[in-house]
Specification:
alpha+beta, Ferric Hydroxamate Uptake Protein, Chain A, domain 1, 5-stranded mixed β-sheet, elongated
């Protein structure tokens, strides 16, 4: 192979890898949530030094931590998605809790996970169906999930038209199509124009000139969820006094998938042909 072509191939290989790193870093800003809980034995005692795995059901990515001396565990920097919690400890059956749905910026406390005495080769599986009570945050927020986005008919297919479905949000705009300045007419808890922040996959997408719209307006089919932080949200979202609208794309947890789609395009793949 010609040396110049080898250099070209190396550069084309390194570019997507660099983008993966940058995307992963960007997704950690203002987008990720956490899952925490406490491990107990059948008598209510704590279980320290247990192995806790949090597994993404969409990407199969595994995060592993160990419970502390009080039996507590916390896994941070988790992207929105559905997770399974797997607990392994000597003298206890393996415990699995599936179907834990984590939205953007959410902190879920699964509370007490009670382990059963037995061999670790045996597994106790629980499907998460209950609504978790949020005791670690006084945040008031509203969520529009992907199923609602795909099911609700929208004039102009502007995703911003969905936020008025949430309590405390008013939208007086006539939305004919998605585009710039789409925060015009939106008010959260009576806020003034220009006081709302807008993020896309954890990165601020607000036009800092007009303060009334995004730099990028994704199509409705690309949206995975829209979360509106209204009051008592964390200090990291305190940039704007009127509230924060967090938009999460449907593929935000899988940046590598997007790059593979690009690679499959013939114009890009041709660069690797000898």
């Amino acid at each position: 192979m010609h040396p110049s072509k080898s250099k070209t191939i190396f550069r084309l290989f390194m570019l997507p890898m660099t983008l993966v790193c940058l995307l992963s870093a960007a997704f950690g800003q203002g987008l990720t949530g956490q899952i925490s809980g406490t491990l107990n034995d059948p008598n209510g005692g704590v279980v320290p030094n247990a192995k806790v795995e949090v597994i993404s059901q969409e990407t199969a990515q595994i995060r592993t931590v160990t419970s502390d001396s009080s039996g507590n565990f916390v896994v941070t920097q988790l992207l929105p998605g559905t997770y399974t919690v797997v607990v392994s400890a000597n003298g206890f059956k393996k415990f699995e809790q599936k179907g834990i749905v984590l939205t953007a910026n959410e902190r879920i406390d699964v509370h007490s996970l009670r382990l059963e005495v037995g061999d670790v080769s045996q597994t106790v599986t629980v499907t998460a169906e209950q609504t978790f009570i949020k005791t670690e945050s006084a945040e008031r927020a509203g969520l529009i999930d992907e199923q609602q986005i795909q099911s609700i008919a929208l004039k102009g297919r502007d995703y911003m038209g969905l936020v008025k479905l949430l309590p405390g949000v008013v939208d007086t705009a006539n939305r004919e199509a998605p585009g710039w300045n789409n925060l015009v007419g939106v008010s959260i808890n009576g806020s003034r124009p220009g006081t709302i922040n807008l993020t896309l996959d954890g990165v601020s997408s607000l036009d800092t000139g007009s303060q009334l719209g995004p730099y990028l307006a994704p199509g409705l089919d690309a949206i995975g969820e829209v979360k509106v932080l209204q009051t008592n949200y964390q200090a990291e979202y305190g940039r704007s006094s009127g509230g924060t609208i967090n938009v999460v794309t449907a593929i935000s947890g899988q940046p590598l998938t997007l790059l593979l789609r690009v690679f499959r395009q013939s114009s890009f793949r041709a660069c690797f042909e000898v």
